[in-house]
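Query structure, 292 tokens:
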């Protein structure tokens, strides 16, 4: 893959929290020509495209990664960031190839598998026969330690690119939550976020309360943090430079960042008092305890 990304787990009710990292190929189920991603590149497994990586090659990638991290209980495997505009049958085949290869390598780590349509929770049951809800319940993991990877932003087009929060997450997650319950599956919301507006604070609070009150959700990560971003705001600001969720981050004018105005007053307050601090991450959870 042309890029791999680490996500630090911001908070989980039943999994190991901030000491864990999610590894994911950040390629939108594409390969080659990263110049205009997320739209450029050949869809992995597209047999009619001679430039496309094959499903078998995607599985081999994950087999190699799994060998390297199988002994590390702090690593979670995110199979791919935001697949989109591809046959859901092919997405299922690619995901399954990766799961099979990971378990074949002896890795017991938690796997999180994405759906189609940018793996949006709001669109999980939409799209007719191509809806993720018609396919992702067919995944098979011999260890039953695979969760569903969901992204859910609150702005007008669910992209996480705009300042205003206009999409109520509780309403928009209702159908995917019902699907998870029906299929006895768990989910991990690995991208969400909002800007420093009253509506965003209200919706972020509601979303985190919703995840906490529904056992189908085993964890979440907010986008985005890390020193890489500097004063850039990769989430939710119409490309304004308000800083990131990284502690110590500052806006371009030297003022408070999204860490100061969103993470500290809203997101961080929903971190559960008790978390799993050791052991392999699992859809079934583990022993919970508090840390001072």
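Result returned for the query:
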């Amino acid at each position: 893959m042309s890029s791999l990304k680490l996500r630090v787990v911001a908070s989980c009710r039943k999994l190991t929290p901030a000491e864990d990292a999610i590894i994911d190929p950040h390629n939108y189920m594409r390969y080659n020509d990263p110049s205009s991603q997320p739209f450029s590149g050949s869809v992995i497994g597209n047999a009619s495209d001679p430039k496309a990586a094959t499903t078998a090659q995607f599985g081999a990638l994950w087999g190699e990664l799994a060998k390297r991290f199988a002994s590390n209980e702090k690593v979670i495997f995110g199979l791919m960031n935001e697949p989109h505009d591809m046959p859901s049958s092919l997405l299922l085949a690619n995901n399954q190839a990766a799961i099979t290869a990971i378990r074949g390598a002896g890795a017991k780590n938690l796997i999180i598998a994405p759906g189609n349509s940018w793996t949006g929770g709001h669109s999980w049951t939409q799209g007719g026969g191509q809806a993720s809800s018609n396919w992702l319940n067919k995944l098979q993991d011999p260890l039953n330690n695979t969760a569903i990877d969901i992204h859910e932003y609150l702005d007008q087009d669910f992209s996480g690119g705009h300042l205003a929060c206009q999409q109520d997450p509780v309403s928009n997650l209702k159908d995917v939550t019902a699907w998870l319950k029906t299929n006895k599956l768990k989910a991990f919301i690995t991208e969400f976020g909002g800007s420093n507006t009253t509506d965003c604070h209200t919706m972020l609070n509601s979303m985190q309360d919703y995840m906490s009150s529904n056992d189908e959700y085993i964890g979440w990560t907010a986008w985005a943090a890390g020193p890489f971003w500097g004063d850039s705001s990769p989430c939710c600001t119409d490309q304004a430079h308000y800083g990131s969720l990284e502690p110590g981050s500052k806006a371009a004018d030297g003022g408070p960042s999204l860490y100061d105005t969103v993470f500290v007053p809203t997101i961080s307050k929903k971190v559960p008092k008790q978390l799993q601090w050791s052991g392999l991450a699992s859809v079934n959870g583990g022993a919970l305890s508090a840390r001072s």
